[in-house]
Amino acid sequence: xxxxxxxxxxxxxxxxxxxxxxxxxxxxxxxxxxxxxxxxxxxxxxxxxxxxxxxxxxxxxxxxxxxxxxxxxxxxxxxxxxxxxxxxxxxxxxxxxxxxxxxxxxxxxxxxxxxxxxxxxxxxxxxxxxxxxxxxxxxxxxxxxxxxxxxxxxxxxxxxxx
Length: 162
Fold this sequence. Notes:
Elements: H1 2-30, H2 34-60, H3 66-83, H4 92-119, H5 130-156
Helix pairs in contact: 1-2, 1-3, 1-4, 4-5
């Protein structure tokens, strides 16, 4: 059971690395636009959450997960290929990157929800304010979702012809 918890936490850590790389890509491509500013700010928040998660991992213990890290790297490379800014695609890659971030944030929310329950049986998990962490994830989700919905109009609505 101890290894299962370490594996679970490391899977989330790999997801956070993926999210940061995705946000870095968004920032690089949109640095002169509002979406770039958004990606930069969101990256800083994800990095803070990653530090919190690393603190928990340090208390629980690490897992040997070279395969998980390699899979995360491969997913990141695949997403960069699709994320390439291409006006002919109508921003589909960027739209899907934002959607991927919403899924990751929901996963992070689920992590923050289950850890207090696991802590009842495993005191290696620090007593953190998981309610506050869940609220932060809710707020992050709302902000990413707002960006995603704005981009949906550009991505899927037909261009107005004059």
